[in-house]
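Structural prep section.
Before we set up the soaks we want a predicted structure of the protein with WT7 in place, mainly to decide which crystallisation condition to try first. Input record follows.
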Amino acid sequence: MVPKIHSLGGYIHEYQKSVTNPEAFWAEVAEGFYWHKRCDTVLEWDFKGPSIKWFAGGKLNITENIFERNLYTIGNQPALIWEPNNPNEKTRLLTYFELYKEVNKFANTLKQLNVKKGDRVAIYMPMIPELTIAMLACARIGAVHSVVFAGFSANSLSDRIIDADAKIVLTADGGFRGDKITPLKNIVDEALETCPDVEKVIVYQRTNSKINMVEGRDIWWHKAIEGMLEECPAEEMDAEDNLFILYTSGSTGKPKGIVHTTAGYMVYTAYTFLNVFQYNAGDVYFCTADIGWVTGHSYIVYGPLLNGAQTLMFEGIPTWPDAGRFWDVVDKHKVNQFYTAPTAIRSLIALGMEHITNKDLSSLKVLGTVGEPINEEAWHWYHDHIGRNRCPIVDTWWQTETGGVMISPIPGIIPTKPSFATLPLPGIQPVIVNGDNKELTGNSVKGNLCIKFPWPGMARTIWGDHERFRKTYFSTFKNLYFTGDGAQRDEDGYYRILGRVDDVINVSGHRLGTAEIENAINSHPLVNESAVVGYPHSIKGQGIYAFVVCGELSTGGEEGIRKSIKMAVTNMIGPFARPDLIQLVPGLPKTRSGKIMRRILRKVAEGDASNLGDITTLLDEEVVDKIIDGALVPVKR
Ligand code: WT7
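Run finished without errors. Recording the tokens verbatim:
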């Protein structure tokens, strides 16, 4: 199996080994897996190209490492525990053996529909077991899954289907979320109006919503799997064959299809899951993320299942039927490890203690957070009221691009500190670099967070745009992977993540490019131009503040235009990208060369315009005064 760290001495020893001889370190971890053929070389790399190959020459299939490797020992133990949106509906439980059979059946279904190794399969599904089954079925036959979060709009879905050139889409009639139903199939229908290359749509019946099935294109899931065999030989994959594409936002342009490959991702998610959550056989592990984001890929599906763990998948939302739902689920299933986002914690704090005090949370052993910096107040609340002072908190820093957790305490082993992700995991070599490309060594430093050596879980490219991959991550700082985050290393050598230093904002743990939101706003016919920045928001972490220049106002006046701008963003991206504040302004602060000075807008949105920094290049100072006068937050001058 995968080596597990048991003590602080063990961590120090493993870390040192991983830095002095990374290849030997990772070769040893890889030993625990099932390979058709061992690799020829452990690592070949070059950050200039960049070109990164882990376990090159190795042959394997990731699903054999979930199933065949474990079936004799844990075949009859639960793999997937599914908790439905409605607490009165029955829980579904699939053992490893049952999940294996479902995966094979669906793999055979895909094969029959002519899906071949390397083909991309778009998945737009709610949080139901069939989503996991679909992903693993793709992996079984070597198809590349591209899961699209079921909160994205038709327009975003269509962009992703086209970019990945998927010919098949998997969806459901609808998805339950609290007391609402998301009309997934209708959204797919709308998206496919602009995707002429999609040949088949498989539809799982979940909500019994009235939908339209397109003759010759759409097939019901239950019909499609009828009569399929429960055995499907695993496709032999090269270590560096693509496993999946997952889109994420960047500081410019359209979303990037982050590509992860087979062996490195497998080794890295398995290793980090076991160690970061200190999972023990028989534990019940619950990650509240949606599988549409990387957290769900790595730490609901692959990491846990590769370790033979029991992974709980929750269909619903934290606030329905009431704000105690997470704790009811923890109590009902006796959850041992619980992993969520700071924004969820903050929203539950705001909803009061009455949903927590009489819940039995005694099964909990480890608490985790991910997605954004956790403020000290939320950290203490989580520690005191959920962990009841007995559970270490793992503040896990990582990214879609890193595949798995990079910096995190090992619970019970590395002492925690509120709002610090603490120390790098074995194999990870973080560095802090200043604006002049200089590495800041020693402790008590602050700057740009980079990684100076490859790790197996790292992304290999951006789908269809390797040059963008190079430019985004490997060109800012010489020979380093640049994360886009700022970080501090304190006097103990502990890392604290300070947030993004680029034009990416983090809203309720959702990563959004300001340029993306601006494009959506600018699609509104009355908008001339706009600039979007983040501002501190007590629950969401960051809120979205849009400064918008309009030509004329429609009949609805200012309120009307604000409403219709929000609609435009909902239609172009999804409801989670809707601006919180929209200020109509006479103009934007620009340099003489026409560049928007976002720094000024950020200061206004943060409520402190007392020191705007160097404004000598500013074209029109009066515009700034007008913006401050009309600001939607109190601004100190
Ligand atoms: C960005 C990556 C990785 C899973 C979820 C987000 C921020 C992530 C932390 C943390 C402070 C964090 C960073 C990062 N972030 N974890 N523990 N503390 N910030 O994945 O959507 O790719 O976003 O989320 O800014 O760059 P993602």
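Observations: The chain is about 30% helix and 25% strand.
Flagged for discussion at group meeting.
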